[in-house]
Amino acid sequence: MKVCTRLIAVLLLFVVASCGKKKNDQPSESSFVITLDTPAVSGKKIMLKWSGIEARYISSIYMERSIDTGLNKPPQLLTVNAADTQYTDTLTLNSYVTYRVRAQVLVNGVGKTIYSNTRVFTRSDIDFLPFVPKDAICDKQTGRIYLISAIGELAVYDITTRKVLHKIETGATIMSMFMATHNGKKEIYLSRNDGWVFMYDPETLDKTDQLNTEVVPASIVYANGKLFISSSNVTPGLLTYDRTTKAMLFDTAYSFANMSLLVLPGTNTDLLGLSSVRYRMNFDANGVMKWAKSSYISSYSVAPPYALLPGDNRIVCANTGVIFDTGFNYVSTLPRGSVFLRSFEVDADNAKLYCGTTGQEVHVYNTSTYMQEKRIITQGSPIKVFYYSGGIYCISTESYYSGYGVDAFVERF
Length: 413
Known about the structure:
single chain, mainly beta, four-stranded antiparallel β-sheet, 37 strands, about 55% strand
């Protein structure tokens, strides 16, 4: 009997001790700590690893991903297996992505939400811009790219420092942009939807002057101290202003409206006006038109922007890559495959033509033979292509159809 009593007592002590041990094994809330490591990149993948909580305590676990789109959206919740301690994400064309692990755990039978530390992944291989550009021009002397947006922003990006130096709001819709040197000083000309042309200092983006054209300027160029403006109005379609006095020198009732204007280098007096009808125009020293020759060629699809090829006697047109001479005689067409061409740049030796496309590629052509020599595969869709100091720089967006909330960036080749 005594033996049985002792045996029962020992068993009770064992059970009590075992229960007490299990209770003491339950971690406290303060011991649940998740440590997220620095993201690592492998090709087009981002590898995320963490440590801290055993799977048996986890009821659910997620990776929080916040993408910098400027729209203040809540983080995305990416489901993770409770037994896993890593997650592989796809590399995106966003300036930075924020990650954090969120786990639901049981602490003494009570559900608790535990968060890891936050890690931010920043793209270092491309430089992000403050807006999606409508157009861009490059100053080859300083290596600075000037960008305008559809809602009237103006910014300058420096190729050497890889920084956006200045950004301003102009307060209007910008129709076109042009840069020239007047009286020894560079100026940026922005034509606006309210009929004004504002002038800016390229160094500071300070506004320096303004001109009221009383039309909506579709295109503007500078030559020989004169500003030439093609308006969006049917009449007057073309106007000339003295840059210094701002006096109007010439206007015409004849429709030269909605043209893209190009100055023929070395003339200061000859302009090309390109639209469905193409004009070559000659002006005297006072900015008055002497003559204009027109041509309408319906057999070929042409669209802006346009670029002059070396020798200044050939024009390459966007979309299909049709090439005309300055008398508007057909010369050739560039092979382009299934994409369309939308920006042009010639290298320092005038030997190669770089074309941005509606795809994710830049086409490289020989300027003499028009042979396509290679395709440069890009991460985004190149809006503009620039050649500077031996390098190729693309102003790109995530896709051809990108809009607000999608990053624009500079790619370097």
